Amino acid sequence: MKKLFLLTVIMALWCCSDKTGEADNMKIFVDELMRKMTLEEKIGQLNLPTVGFDVTGPILSSDVEAKIKAGLVGGVFNTFTPTAVRKLQEIAVNETRLHIPLIFGYDVIHGHRTIFPIPLGISATWDTDLIEKVAVSVADEATADGLHWTFSPMVDIARDPRWGRVSEGAGEDPFLGSAIAKAMVKGYEQGDLSNPNTLMSCIKHFALYGAAEAGRDYNTVDMSKIRMYNEYLPPYKAAVDAGASSVMTSFNEVDGIPATGNKWLLNDLLRLQWGFEGFVVTDYTAIMEMENHGVGNSEQVTERSINAGVDMDMVSEYMLKYLPALVKSGKIPEKQIDSACRRILEAKYKLGLFSDPFRGLSEERADTHIMSDEKLDLCREAAEKSFVLLKNENQVLPLNKNQKIAFIGPLIKDQRNLIGNWSGAGDWKRAESIWSALVEKFGTAHFDYALGCNLIDDSCLMKKLNQNGGQLTIDPLSPQQLINQALQIARNADVIVAALGEPFGMSGEAASRSDISLPENQKTLLKALKNTGKPIVLLLMNGRPLCLQWENDNLDAILETWYPGTKAGEAIVNTIFGIANPSGKLSISFPRNVGQIPIYYNHKNTGRPMQEEQKYTSKYLDVSNDPLYPFGYGLSYSDFEYADLSLSDSILSENGRITASVTLTNKGAVEATETVQLYIRDLAGSITRPVKELKGFQQVSLQPGESKNVAFTIDTELLKFYNAALKYVCEPGDFHVFIGGNSATKAHVGFTLK
Ligand code: NOJ
């Protein structure tokens, strides 16, 4: 132990400020350490068991403490708090032969203790500065609780809202998804993992996990390389370029080979083409699951994974079990193990764990940094900015505190659902309900409350959700009695606010749905409320786009709040009473019905684009092709006018640039923020091109009546795509430029690339 520290100090003294010097120091250090390691100890570094709280699969690891002592563990996950981390780290550094510290990982997905809006919600802010700030804050809090590594961001493009994990990502678009991926990695790692407030990020799930057939979790993915490169891979690449230090393999297959054993994916693409220098960890038991995929027995799948480029085995312990014999029999060269072990040790070195294995650990830091006022404030701001106003007929919103308002629904007083799924370390009891925020802000003189219905009535579904901590209950009153109570207060009110949605367990991992509407009993309540003739505001909480055709046709206002997190109550109350003005924009299309799925704005034109009057064109007989709410859509309490769309030139030369601009005016009576979106269509290419693609966005805040010129620079870089030979090129020809407040915007101007 002492020797190791001495060596580290010497290394630190040698350390030059430039990157090469740092890299050299790291190499010398790791070389020296690896020279002392046995094969078993090297393989031990590749082992990532789970110890502790929550899991998403079977717990296979046993005797973790004994394994740590024997040098057979590289890192652990699902353990945090200074006390718990210190306990295991002390074993690693004091009771093992080589004193190598452990890495502590956890699914810090949208906050650690302070829970921010779910990723799909925060992506609706389109505010990458805010997202980066949130990641910085999350990193500070998680590291104060002993963690080094988060399994985030999830950057999987998702176009199928049946898939429960759409809640964990940034939606359907590669451009927006890339910008958000980059912001999160930058925020977590801040370019310097030796700073104890930074958290190592992990890009997941590599790759294409969001394209599971039929939206069913863990299902097969099959996709052309053209689609992969142009539509699904960009966010992973953006995160690698932003410096992400680790990558998690996905459960699905890619081109017929499970990602965890896919050499093309992990080696040729990730390492050789993209230059990724960090380490690759599998998803939970993904090596073992390759047996079910049908690509070999336990030894064979282990061999496939290490040969493909996997460095760390999450939970299956197949590497620990099978690699020693595979190396001894000559099936796997030891240098393969060395490369993987080196990458793990390098990550530990970069985290500063060799100089301080107790990096950032102190009860005092935990006490002052966890759930600090500053973090809670950021949490409220992020929640407010994530809300998307889907409908607001006759400006029923914002409400006036002097109105008589009936607050109805199981989510008005709820706390557990507010923090959503993947909020493992979050304490839902600290989440602020809508009702308590109302009471705090205004008292309740004008407000009535009724439960109205249970969150769900379906006992079979409830049982499944409760098995995983759903905490769903059935009220002793019958559904009709609950509705009657609600009607009683509704009839006396000027306006009804109904808070409804999915229980949090209905989205997230292993939470695919084939019917993505509101639960039936909630719809029954809404229909009964509709009969009162009173204006109705629907506050939604859900982890995916829902089918809301009836709600859109029959209710006056709809505010999508996702799962807003710890400060849900205040953020919602501020928004519905106009203290905050909604500015969120959808990062994923909301379909009219499930039959339209997959539905996304950047589709191809086809040879027979939809024409209403023409039978033999690409459309449905029973529903339009358009989504109910398109990508990029979201209203405000103000109205924005877009005018004077123009280009600085109608010709773009190869190394030139032109400017597209528009005049944006706030026509409403309140200050508001608009996300101005730039879309481009490439009219003809060597391969077919989407009908439009997001290529830029800017957020503009305007006072009532104020106008601003909003300009975007267009250069050839922006027009590039992967052609049939998978070369990243732009091709001469004609382009259309659209600037508007959502992806359905039609007005355009054109230019030619010479
Ligand atoms: C399985 C999930 O797919 C992944 O996203 C998560 O990080 C791991 N379990 C660890 O909990």
Notes on the protein architecture:
With 754 residues, the chain is of the alpha/beta class. Among the domains are: 1-104 and 333-371, no CATH class; 380-588, 3-Layer(aba) Sandwich (Rossmann fold), CATH 3.40.50; 640-753, Immunoglobulin-like (Sandwich). The chain has 23 helices and 26 strands. Strands 11-16-15-14-12-13 form a six-stranded mixed β-sheet, with helices on one face. Helix 18 (434-442) crosses helix 23 (568-576) and helix 20 (479-491) runs parallel beside helix 21 (520-530). The longest helix is centred in the N-terminal third of the chain and has 18 residues, at 19-36. Mean pLDDT is 96; it is low at 1-16. The structure holds 1-deoxynojirimycin. 1-deoxynojirimycin is lined by residues 56, 107, 151, 204, 283-284, 509.
Summarize this entry quickly.
The protein is built from 23 helices and 26 strands. It has 754 residues and is of the alpha/beta class. 1-deoxynojirimycin (NOJ) is lined by residues 56, 107, 151, 204, 283-284, 509.
